[in-house]
Structure prediction request, 497 residues.
Amino acid sequence: MRLPPELALTSLFVDRITVTHQPAASAAVPSATNTALFEAARAVIPGGVDSPVRAFGSVGGTPRFIASAGGAHVTDAEGHRYVDLVGSWGPALLGHAHPEVVAAVQAAAARGLSFGAPTESETLLAEEVRRRVPAAQKVRFVSTGTEATMTAVRLARGATGRDLVVKFAGCYHGHSDGLLAAAGSGLATGGLPGSAGVPTAVAAQTIVLPYNDVAALEACFAERGSEIAAVITEGAPANMGIVPPAPGFNAAIRRITAEHGALMILDEVLTGFRVGPAGWWGLEAVDGWTSDLPVFAAEPSDAAAPTWPGADWRERAAWVPDLVTFGKVVGGGMPLAAVGGRAEVMDLLAPSGPVYQAGTLSGNPLATAAGLATLQLADDAVYASVAERAQAIGEVVAAALTEQGVPHRVQRAGSLFSFMFGQRAADQGVSDYEAARAQETWRYGPFFHAFLEAGVGLPPSVFEAWFVSAAHGEAELETIANAAPAAARAAARAQAS
Prediction:
């Protein structure tokens, strides 16, 4: 594969460095406390943060202001160093500040921050996306996952001439008005505004159904199928904690939408190129991954390790979406996302077709350089390492919780995982939004802070995925194992408020 100039230059200065690269050194003298920085931020930024979950609202306390990151660690403004299980909310597949990714971005920056014109790196990254997910015959880059899902929905409406979109409760697809909808009063009713500022009429164009409920989806299409443009779903939901799809659920979405002339939009902003070389679609539809939650009452298949689709992908795939959205990993941690899909649908986008979408900074050369470098470095060894460490961390923490008598379940979707607390979760697993909400969420705050005090940074919400990188090694696993008993005791002592 050809390398763009900015990546080709790196080979002159940087030898290939393995995924065990060392984290960057932190600043010797802290400049301010986290508390002081948070107070200053709140004076000029609503809530002191630019993304609500960063505010520690779910766990309490003061957010950590990060000064630097390297490998499997982040360092805050006070000089405290943490094993990082957030990973920039997923993009840090290789670890933070991977030398080759950094060098690619630096080389691209030296050529200019943006041009408002096409660059070769956009084409090369689109080719890499298509190589991994051949169903993405054509790819359009945008700046954020929200923009990618918004574009996919608009494209589906333009392709079908229909207005309604179906989503599932607990699945997040960005903060566009039409998708910030809560369930209405019936299976086939329009949604209600899920946020202040969302017009009722806009929310009503979205139907919200329970996740993993094929019967509800069939009933909805039986009643309003001729009005539905698309079903949008996370490949494996990761925004209500990890809630894996039931065996055959995604295939059922594909079948039902095809029967009614609607499109299937697979939102892989979080899972794409994270859980495997072809994202969730490759892991489930091609490799046969199946959830083992007891509630599904089905035997899991013996799925192989994630693989590349290969030339026979059409024959191997159990289902193929019409459109796929990508984010996070595709930009290597920089603002970049994409929507891809069947050529005849994608060609409806301007300037080829009548569906308008444009972005001045979309496909930014720094972001595409970071994304291309990340994907080219993310080989079989990377995915094997991430899967192995994710499994090990989940087992270590689960063992500590079990020893303290804390009812829980480790919910997994490939290498993504999270913990659900409570006896119902332990016995049955969590398969939908209502069950996720019903868990003992009050145990997570003390659990989180105990880990934080021991130098391990978890996602600051029980409803978020844990992310492991290829830079996590034995030393990081030991730190987590040493911290787990105290965190489990904190969860055991926690009381519902």
Summary: Residues 131 and 309 are 8 Å apart (CA to CA).
